[in-house]
Amino acid sequence: MKPELRHLRYLLAVAEHANFTRAAEELRVSQPTLSQQIRQLEKALGVQLLDRTARAIRLTDAGSAYVHYARSALRDLAAGERAVLDVRDLSRGHLRLAVTPTFTAYLTGPLVADFHARHPGITLDVREMTQDRIEADLLDDRLDLGIAFAGDHLPGIEATALFTETLGLVVGPRHPDGQHPGPLPVAELGDHRLALLRGDFATRRHIDRYFAEHHVQPRIAVEADSVNALTEIVTRAPLATVLPDAVTHDHPQLTPIPLDPALPSRTVTLLCRRSTYRSAAARAFGHRAADWARTHDITSG
Amino acid sequence: MKPELRHLRYLLAVAEHANFTRAAEELRVSQPTLSQQIRQLEKALGVQLLDRTARAIRLTDAGSAYVHYARSALRDLAAGERAVLDVRDLSRGHLRLAVTPTFTAYLTGPLVADFHARHPGITLDVREMTQDRIEADLLDDRLDLGIAFAGDHLPGIEATALFTETLGLVVGPRHPDGQHPGPLPVAELGDHRLALLRGDFATRRHIDRYFAEHHVQPRIAVEADSVNALTEIVTRAPLATVLPDAVTHDHPQLTPIPLDPALPSRTVTLLCRRSTYRSAAARAFGHRAADWARTHDITSG
DNA sequence: GGTAGCTATTGAGCTCGTCTATAGTCGGGG
DNA sequence: CCCCGACTATAGACGAGCTCAATAGCTACC
Fold first, then answer.
1. Into how many domains does chain A fold?
2. pLDDT of residue A299
């Protein structure tokens, strides 16, 4: 037979009181029970743990050696229970988050920084990937949360809307249209030279669809693979680009130019696997994201 | 309810296999049993430990946190069982030994050195005290073993004879009787000047009794409180002393002079508390002491 | 030698861990 | 679209063993 926690607790009590009767009282069991269980433990370990012949019960050498480890084991279990509470407190945990690339520019930064500031004990794994990949990884449980656009999701994916993202034409200080008086008719877009994200970005496809619908063929002067690159380019060159309004808010030197008609807006959603379980960290991040969206909607609308 | 070791083992198995059925097979229990026990553990801890909704079972944050401590606790218990075996192997342990003062000179040194060399993992506490004190401390369980003389012991003390110690007159190189031809009649002792242990030593009382029985009154020139002091004094001064033969064997510059009749010999015994339990260390020390006595008797007799 | 204070033993009772059988759930394939 | 296979959850019965009260056995002390 193997020792059980009961045996450890009983042994420690007897060792502490040097007395079976007293220990039994503290443990709220009868003294015969205690005698039997200690004997059982001794049999399980194959050694005498207590010297009962002296006036007061004393640990044998084997007993002292074992008691040390027994105490340690019980301490570990207590620590484990505290650790579990810590997780509930969000003072521990881990969150695997993925976003589609455009969000890195204006959403991931502030959101993750805020979350980390509130819950420094939760480790974060943030990565960029395509929306398809995000959904697949959520289903395979390689991710906890994703941020992407509303649309047709894979079965098993749960999507909750966060906010509405609107795209707009954006120019920098060196652009001749910097002080354009009113909304720019879409037909005039053909006159502009643009810097845009590459075609493998969902945002780019969204923009291309808009152009196609209005039969406009703008001149693409530059293609880049990050929003950051675009803002840098537009700040320094007389080019226009198309960016989420939120990005423009963060860059005072960028000027939004309304289009007529406006680009269709997209709904940004929080994605997760449909499941009964959601980690405390994931729930908390969801709340922070919703809060962020609320304040974002206020400033942008 | 509190978590039991069973719960820990079950949880670790499920976490490892990421599958209840497989884990149940390894644990040799039925799958329903495993489900029930894991659920019980989760209830005890107040958190969900496993995420059962994914394709493969996965630990939740709380689960990973707890598993860490569970592993640690089980490791501690395994270490405890090894430690217990170590004690049986004499690779751990502790021994509290007391000797009456004269033994320190020739017996404690070699015996303890030998024992320590064989069992370096056993810590030793060696002290000198009077025989009465040794027996009292044995009964109060403040000592494991004592070395003293046979005689009337306190009730509850168990004595096992080790060897017979004979005392003899001893002179150093500067003593005129250094080349004494034969045994020295006791009556002639009155001519000698002696260096002896002080009166509170059992050995001194033993010697005084011998003198009294033979109506001799030797001249005590020096009284010392250690055998070491006596050997040093006799080596350098033209004085005689009375020492155990074994001491003389260890000092080539000391010469034993037989007395006629010889001093009564005393039996050296190993003392311990009468009890069913004796530590492995104490048993081992007893054996080493008996061995030492055997070889000692050969060289001296 | 009797008594007080402990621990060990005994036999009955009942909790609870375990089992078998079965229902519920989720994906994947025809 | 429904069935099938793999897996986990639930239900009820059984039995091992923990626990208890009563008591015997032991040791020290007066």
1. 3
2. 41
Rounded to whole angstroms, the Cα distance separating B234 from B239 reads 6
Q: Tell me the two tokens of residue B232.
A: 């040093």
Interface with A, mutate which of B77, B95, B279 (most A CBs under 10 A)? B77
Task: Enter the tokens of residue B238.
Answer: 């033209």
Structure-token pair, residue B140: 């109060």
| Long-range contacts, B149-155 (Cβ 8 Å, 24+) | B149/B100, B149/B202, B149/B266, B149/B267, B149/B268, B149/B269, B150/B266, B150/B267, B150/B268, B150/B269, B153/B271
Question: What is the model's pLDDT at position A298?
Answer: 44
What does the pLDDT look like over B286-300, one tens digit per residue? 999 988 888 866 444
Confidence check: pLDDT of B78 > 90: no
Same domain, A81 and A42: yes
Which strand C nucleotides have any atom less than 7 A from protein CB atoms?
6-11, 17-22, 26-27
Tokens of A134: 């995000």
- In 10 A of CB B63, how many CB atoms? 27
Contact between A193 and A221 (Cβ < 8 Å): yes
In this prediction, residue B278 has a pLDDT band, given cuts at 50, 70 and 90, of confident
What lies within 8 Å, CB to CB, of B29 at 6+ separation is B10
Residue (of A9, A3, A59, A10) closest to B74 by Cα position: A3
The reply to whether A160 and A180 lie within a common domain is no
Beta bridge partners of residue A145, listed in sequence order = A97
- Separation of CA B118 from chain center: 12
Asked whether residue B130 falls in the same domain as residue B184, the answer is no
Neighbours of A77 (CB within 10 A): 22
Between β-strands A167-171 and A255-257, what pairing exists: parallel, antiparallel or unpaired? antiparallel
- Which range of residues forms the domain containing residue A20? 5-88
Considering the domain architecture, whether residues B61 and B120 belong to the same structural domain is answered as no
Mean pLDDT for all residues in chain B? 86
Q: Which of residues 83-142 of B touch A (CB under 8 A)?
A: 83-84, 86-88, 92-94, 140-141
The per-residue pLDDT for A178 is 64
CATH number, domain with residue B37: 1.10.10.10
User: Are A179 and A258 members of one domain?
Assistant: yes
Say how many C-beta atoms besides its own lie within 10 A of residue A63's C-beta.
27
Q: What is the pLDDT of residue B297?
A: 63
**For strand D, is any atom closer than 7 Å to the CB of B281?**
no
Verify whether the Cβ–Cβ distance B76 to A69 is below 8 Å. yes
Q: Tell me: do A255 and A188 sit in the same domain.
A: yes
Q: Are A33 and A152 members of one domain?
A: no
Q: Which of residues 12-51 of A touch strand D (CB under 7 A)?
A: 28-33, 36-37, 40
Say yes or no: B115 and B145 in one domain: yes
Compute the average pLDDT of residues A15-43.
88
Residues 6+ apart with CB under 8 A from B8: A77, B70, B73, B74
At A138-197, the pLDDT tens digits run 887 788 899 999 888 887 888 889 988 888 899 988 787 766 667 888 888 887 889 999
Which CATH number belongs to the domain containing residue B224 in this structure? 3.40.190.290
What is the predicted pLDDT for the residue at B7?
A: 92
Q: Is the pLDDT of residue B36 over 70?
A: yes
